[in-house]
Amino acid sequence: MEAVIFDVDGTLVDSVDRHAESWERAFARFGKDIPFAKLRSQIGKGGDQLMPVFLDAAELKRFGADIEAARGAIFKAESLHRVKGFPGCTALFEALRARGLRIALASSSKAAELEVYKQAAGVDGLTDVETSSDDADRSKPHPDIFAAALAKLDLPPGRAIVVGDTPYDAEAARKAGIAAIGVLCGGFPAEDMRAAGATRIYRDPEDLLAHIDEWAA
């Protein structure tokens, strides 16, 4: 293994609930009353994959883009600056780099949001490669974002591993041919991540660091 590819939302930063709240309010503006729990279960997907779960084709065409724009504005104004990183991210990244491993971030977020997340997690300056929604035509569970990270790393799938907090991360990694491990700090059930292909499950970045010899050898 030569590189570790990290999801960001729910994996390095505690943002899943805030994203779900932003989607809930954005849908409500267009008369769509969708329960928070149902929206939260879809976080990890980008808007291109999340909205079709709740809107039919006619609704997507009529106001899908407006809902996504509203979600982005709500999140930026009210939540982005409040996102906190999970403990241990800096030490984890430093330990991986000390082992000679390269680090990539693969997020469905916008590039500007990713910059804020890096600061919140304390990993700015500790990554080798970054991909955002700008680098992928389709978001997770499609493999595009992880394929883009591999391309930037110039590595075959067997030389990297993905770390993510949702079954969509594990599914996307599997489709890209990359092994995946899961973390529970995003609030998704371990059994769902295992069913999607995660080979190991850890609590959070601190737990990843505590067991680094198990998965980053």
From TrEMBL:
The keyword Hydrolase applies. One of its GO terms (molecular function) is phosphoglycolate phosphatase activity. Keywords: Hydrolase. It comes from the Bacteria. GO terms for biological process: DNA repair. This is HAD family hydrolase. NCBIfam families: HAD-SF-IA-v1 (TIGR01549), HAD-SF-IA-v3 (TIGR01509). InterPro entries: HAD-like_hydrolase_sf, HAD-like_sf, HAD-SF_hydro_IA, HAD_sf, PGP-like_dom2. GO terms for cellular component: cytosol.
